[in-house]
Specification:
alpha/beta, 3-stranded parallel sheet
Length: about 110
């Protein structure tokens, strides 16, 4: 999830159950890091934060587990992508393959 979602994660239905079910990766978002770090959910999750250098081992983590990631920002506008294709949600389901990136490169576990 993005840091903006972590800032309001405590408002999600059964957010503690979600956090206790799957490891969570939080991607830094400009302007949201401070609200994310001071968020109510982060108060509960703070004791479960893993170092970023361990992120490649996330499949071995016992939840709750959280890793804070700093990645180069992607300038692509999600709003712009959705606006360019009004049926994006239907079309994406037809072509979705979680193992292949948009450029055709096969994903590999970290």
């Amino acid at each position: 999830m993005g840091a903006d979602n972590l800032a309001q994660f405590h408002q999600w239905r059964q957010w503690r159950k979600i956090a206790a079910t799957v490891p969570i990766a939080v991607v830094s978002r400009p302007g949201y890091d401070a609200p994310a770090h001071s968020a109510r959910a982060m108060g509960w999750l703070r004791g479960f934060v893993r170092p970023e250098r361990q992120a490649r081992h996330w499949t071995k983590w016992k939840p709750p587990a959280l890793v804070l990631l700093r990645l180069p920002p992607d300038p692509t506008s999600a709003t712009g992508l959705r606006a360019a294709d009004a049926d994006w949600h239907q079309n994406s389901l037809k072509t979705f393959n979680p193992k292949v990136l948009r450029d055709g490169v096969t994903r590999r576990p970290l």
